[in-house]
Fold:
Amino acid sequence: MNRIAIAANPDVEVRPREGRTALRQLAAIVLFVLAVGCVPLFTASGSTLNFVMMALYATLIAQAWNMLGGFGGQFSFGHAMFFGSGAYIQAIAQLQGGINAWVALALAIAGAACVGLATGALSFRYGLKGSYFALVTLAFAEVFRIVALSVSFTGGGVGLMVPLREAPSNLQFATRSGYLWVMLALVAAALLVTWWLRNGRFGAWLQAVRDNEDAARAVGVNPFRVKLGAIGISAAFMGAAGAFYVQVFQYIDPAIAFGPATSIEALVGAIVGGMGTLWGPVLGALVLHLLAELTRNLFGELPGLNMVIYGTVLVLIVIFLPRGIAGIGLSVRRLWAQGRGGPHG
Structure:
């Protein structure tokens, strides 16, 4: 159904087929969560659990970027500023405020969302989009990095180290299983929000703005408010990822928090998997994480070769799978339909 039409008419009914598709997607999310959640019950291997945990972490940041870049069409090169904001709030709240880690997690999510809203208000108010918006977000992330290097409460260039106090009440666990389940809960929340964006009214508004902002405005959609809401949601999940990083590794510094690596990992995972899709970021994060581990294990003794192979495969995926890995099924179905219809044309 046309997104502009849905956005224009609040009384439009969802077709039964679309309703069934939404329910199947919801059922798939439940099955995914159950399947991944059972992994620690079948293996105690630290390397396996760590791989799954980090794949979920990559999924979360890719899904967070997808909410703004995939569904909203607002390409950000500076999502690390939301990640770093959440990470530093998580660390500072515990070290300097004496706040419980779970409460600090909530503060990190809220704080990152506020940073996202402030960034969006400054950017979207003046109509920045496309490459201009991408460069502005990159510049904001660099400003945050410089500020973190300059002030004392962030630890400056030395960074901050959170003491290890293993206890579930402190959001620190003796094994990777606990961290895996926490990250799985965050990924499940991100998948549910993405499902809502695909099937809900706000998602229709957001995709209408992405497809044609002037047409969306003409039918009564407020592009500024819609994009502001999207960047706030996206930033909240990036902040959650930053807080999780601090709890797992007990350390954060300006380069890790606000450097370009996190922004690149987030956008590449979504693009390779398939932007604007439910499962694209999951597939992209898994494939890229598998590829990185394989090249590191196979060619780790040859400096730089693993990155060359990783980059080459990545370029090939982008060139030959423009819709991402999630778009393979759609492309095959279209080719099959064309093949069947060809002789009758």
The CA atoms of residues 182 and 214 lie 41 Å apart. The first strand starts at residue 160 and ends at 161.
